[in-house]
Specification:
8-stranded parallel beta sheet; alpha/beta; 364 residues; binds alpha-D-galactopyranose; 26% strand
């Protein structure tokens, strides 16, 4: 769990902004809720020096990267950066190709705890070999560093990400701050992914996730303005149930109370962080009406009733779809209302608003 600059700020990153965001992680209660990583995405780097060391933008990071890391660490938070397995990053900055061991030593010296490694400008490189190489370089640096594989799912990183020591791997192209399905970009290229497009691409991947190695459906857009609060609640609930990395991507310094309350819902976060480490899955689908479920360590289930349609609908979670006998009676708790709803035999039904969810736990 953490925060990353890209979804809101893109290339507009600086020492001042990152430090004030780290302050906001603490002051807003995000740190207490479990968000620990403060990750600078693309565009912090501008060149390599005469010794080929990577150089941070001296205007935007006048005190250098170690100073930023020291500040983040002084708040009890962890420090992440971004680079790319190819010759250049996606924004055209210097990539890591051919400098993996040198960069890893530099990152360790700066106190980096997390590296997001992108896949732009990799021409004929083999994805598995490239990520194994940066993992070996990070290990050789002597500092434990989380490796976030950002390969967009093209070479099916769920099949090899764990084996090469990746801690999380993107399973799709970039998320967009909108609700809908997959659409072509205006130039005809594939594809822009709304929240519904992303969750559809998680179906079938659940068995590859587990403690220390997760499918990554991309960072959160909660609070960035393109969706309603109901839709943001659904987005957050689904990411929690998918055991996805929860990397906030909004401006924490100015977020509305409604957005704060979504991102810090401790009952929903507990589902995400459950120690069994199962990824939830879609267990029922009837047109726009879906039921998603995740087994929890105590044997209970976290369940989402999801309404993708354009009007309010009644949705039922049947105990049989959750792996329980239909004859059992189970206690239901609503994780957004923070309320025990009582005991229900066989199923639980609720009215779900358009693009909304009802998120519950079900305990026989
Ligand atoms: C790619 C990644 C994004 C972001 C940008 C930065 O598109 O998938 O998450 O890191 O590059 O340029």
């Amino acid at each position: 769990m953490g925060w990353n600059s890209w979804n809101k700020f893109a290339c507009n990153v600086s020492e001042d902004m990152i430090k004030s965001m780290a302050d906001a992680v603490v002051k807003s209660g995000m740190k207490d809720a479990g968000y620990l990583y403060v990750n600078i995405d693309d565009c912090w780097q501008v060149s390599r020096d005469a010794n080929s060391n990577i150089v941070a933008d001296p205007q935007r990071f006048p005190h250098g990267m170690k100073a930023v890391g020291d500040y983040i660490h002084s708040l009890g938070l962890k420090f992440g950066v971004y680079s790319d397995a190819g010759s250049k990053t996606c924004a055209g900055r210097p990539g890591g190709l051919g400098h993996e061991y040198q960069d890893a030593l530099q990152y360790a010296a700066w106190g980096i705890d997390y590296l997001k490694y992108d896949w732009c400008n990799t021409t004929t490189q083999d994805a598995k070999a490239s990520y194994a190489n940066i993992r070996a370089a990070l290990d050789a640096s002597g500092r434990p560093i989380v490796l976030s594989i950002c390969e967009w799912g093209t070479a099916k990183p769920w099949l090899w990400g764990k084996e090469v020591g990746g801690n999380l791997w993107r399973s799709t192209g970039d998320i967009q701050d909108r609700w809908g399905g997959q659409e072509k970009w205006p130039d005809g290229n594939c594809c822009s992914n709304g929240v519904m497009a992303i969750i559809d691409q998680q179906v079938g991947l659940q068995s590859y996730a587990g403690p220390g190695h997760w499918n990554d459906p991309d960072m959160l857009e909660v609070g960035n303005g393109g969706m309603t609060d109901v839709e943001y609640r659904s987005h957050f609930s689904l990411w929690a149930l998918l055991a996805a990395p929860l990397i906030a991507g909004n401006d924490l310094r100015t977020m509305r109370p409604e957005i704060h309350d979504i991102l810090t819902n401790k009952e929903v976060i507990a589902v995400n962080q459950d120690a069994l480490g199962r990824e939830g899955e879609r267990v029922a689908k009837n047109g726009d009406l879906e039921v998603w479920a995740k087994q929890l360590k105590d044997g209970s289930r976290a369940v989402i009733l999801l309404n993708r349609g354009a009007t309010e609908q009644q949705i039922s979670a049947n105990w049989e779809d959750l792996g329980y006998p239909s004859t059992v009676s189970a206690s239901v708790r609503d994780l957004w209302l923070h309320k025990d709803l009582g005991k229900f035999p066989g199923k639980y039904s609720a009215a779900v608003p358009l693009h909304g969810v009802v998120m519950i736990t079900v305990k026989p």
